[in-house]
User: What shape does this take?
Amino acid sequence: MRRALAGQSEAVGLIVRTLLALVGAALVGSIFLAIDGVDLGFAYQEIFEQSFGSSFAVKNSLIEAVPITLVALGVAVAFRAGIFNLGGEGQIYMGALFAVLVVLGLSGLPGPVLIVLGLIGGAIGGGLWGGVAGALRSRLGLSEIITTIMLNFIAFWIVSYLVRGPIQDPDGAGYPYTKEIPAKADLPTLFGTIPLGAVLLVVAAVVVWILLERTKTGISIKSLGAGEAAGRFSGLNVERTGFAVLLIAGVLGGLAGAASLLGNEGRLSDFFSPGWGFVGVMTALIGRGTAIGTLVAGLLIGFLNNGITGAQSAAGIPTSTAQILVGVFVLFLIIVNTDIVATALRRAASSLKGGSRG
Amino acid sequence: MPTLVRMQGIVKRFGDFTASRDVDFEVAAGEVHALLGENGAGKTTLMNILYGLVRPDEGTIEVDGREVDLNGPADAIEAGVGMVHQHPLLVDRLTVAENLFLGGVGNGTARGMREAIAGVTERFPLDIDPGTLVEDLPMSQRQRIEIVRCLARGVRVLVLDEPTAVLTVDEVGDLFGEMRLLIEAGHSVIFISHKLSETARIADSVSVLRAGQMVGTWKMAETNPASLAEAMVGEKVVAACREGERETGAARLALNGCTVVRDDGDDLEGVDLEVREGEIVGIAGVEGNGQRAMAALTQGMARPDHGSVLLDGEELPPVGEWRRKGVHLGRIPEDRRREGLTLDATLWENLLTGPQAPDVGPVFSRRRMIERARDLLAEFGVSPPDPLALAGQLSGGNQQKVIFARELCAEPGVVVAVNPTRGLDLRAQREVHERFLALREQGVAVLMISTDLDEVIALSDRIGVLYSGRLDGPHEAGEIDRREIGLLMAGLTRQEEFENGGGLL
Assistant: This one.
């Protein structure tokens, strides 16, 4: 991960391996499709059509990519520091909750202002959730692997409670969701193809890239990931840096929730996220923990996901088989990056053993 | 007494490095035999060979008169050799009894194992509730469990690998009592250590290793700590050497009555020290006598419990504040791979860390940082000066030069180095020594804490000796000789030596 793109030959190798993974996944996926009696040629053509084939398809693919990639960037930043942010799911829910409260509460304000405030609210909500994990880690030495997962449950059940009571849509026939946000707060789509969330995504990736690759803080984060001794010797406040990293990760997760709420979902429910937080972990690994890699991986998975789910009805692919297909693609992409996964697991083990103070 | 273990002509090479050079080593039945040597002298390698963990390239091993071929610890235990590691290899989450049964003792049945353990504890009491989890026990009791486990497997020779390093003073006393019990029961104990005082207390015989070679074996009654100290550190030629006297200037770095109590026992007690412009002050001593504490104090990694550390008369702040407060002090850490460098980061990145790195603004240009790094690496003799190389790929000598480049690029007036040449080859050692002499010429105040007595003597204008947390000196280099330093390292003052008749050597 650390010098993933250090040389050109390495970059070429990475592209070749990724393409091989896609081909391999398509071949293995064909077995499942064939078992279901699906016309393979038509199915893959339809998947392609549904992900890239029209500006509508591209728009939907990008919308799919936005929450996955934003939350994955948060995972990548933390991963650089040797910290495991498995709390994407909770950060998404808290981000979306804060965003929906802000937007519904201030619905009299003009649209653009609402959008900005909604996104800021989402960042604060997610940041709060990441920050709690960060504080528990740096103050008490609790492994973030445990706390972020636990915080996922807490966030989910807070939202679940609220959308079934205090902020439930009174006209929603009892469904567990909030009122819809006013149309003026919807994230606009540029040129009919590019949702504003995708722009936000690229901006976030560039900011993360600058932070990690072009600032001294980025180098410190890296030294923290390699073990704390060098960081401490260089005068780094290891505890504070660990806290800040989880805070940043939370902000990105919260943005993922807010952007999805304002850009697509329109209302908060307790089935708001179909597991983006966990797909984000995979995405960050496939992106080899770098900002640009995560951006590319997130887009790839967004397009794949949207293409496969979109092709379901036309190509007659059963829902479960479609999910298997997505899983096969992700698995193959992980397989060609096993070195990173191995590093990740090693760090996870040492983090669990020693906590942050080790 | 009959010979129980005989190792002859043992040679072991790791790549270019020879860890054991034609070593002969014999242990008699019923004795505590101490194996002394500095870190890296080859003690652990020799014992790993005896325990079957490492295969020698040449040489033979006999146990109880029979030549043995050891392919692993199981063979060694079969032959009657057991080893107790400093951090015993027990499963923390299992109980004492479960650990004792682990791997099987006696005939392997539950009853057989209980009987085997009971047979041992009759002679060698365990005094620990067998239902206790190992993780709840202090280190001394864990060691005792491992000793019992070895005995239950019929081991006759027990190797204790620096057991006292992790024990408190009282626990050391208990351990020594246990060792005596073992001897009375007819076992032999090989006691690995670099602590002279403990060796003198417990050992019947002592062998000294230095740089992979056996210096000699003595009956403890026929030798003394001072001559053992000398045997340990030896004498070797250091190429670079301090020449001429220097006008030293003002005191730059000072420790005033510094006392530190540390978890690892590497304490300091009321240490006073001044390092002046244009001089190298060398701190000698056997490892574990306060070097870590002194290094941490002077490198901004810890504060004294009592006393003060002053840089140019001002309290030295923690290293995290150095950049903001403009503190210029170059630091060469003891562990260059762990503390000094981020091994899986590039050199240009490593050159940007720490308080001595330049201010590069909020967002830097990667290209410019790489150019800067290339110049610095070339200036400090890193070859090849490739800023994109990963620090972990470099040789020890080159790694040390990268650290010098980072720490000295801002031309600090004070430098604190800890074991700066440990693990380096001779050429790299000489380059480091020449670097220190150049700093001295430039009027830099250099504090060098080193367990390498040769380099302390060769480079230092003044020499202090740490023993048990207390600092003797520093003395002018001309007023103290190697023999006297050796005595001080062994914890004897000149006065004591005088009282002992002075003619021990």
Observations:
- The first strand of chain B starts at residue 3 and ends at 14.
- The longest helix of chain B spans residues 169-184.
- DSSP finds 18 helices and 20 strands in chain B.
- Chain B touches chain A through 35 residues (CB under 8 Å).
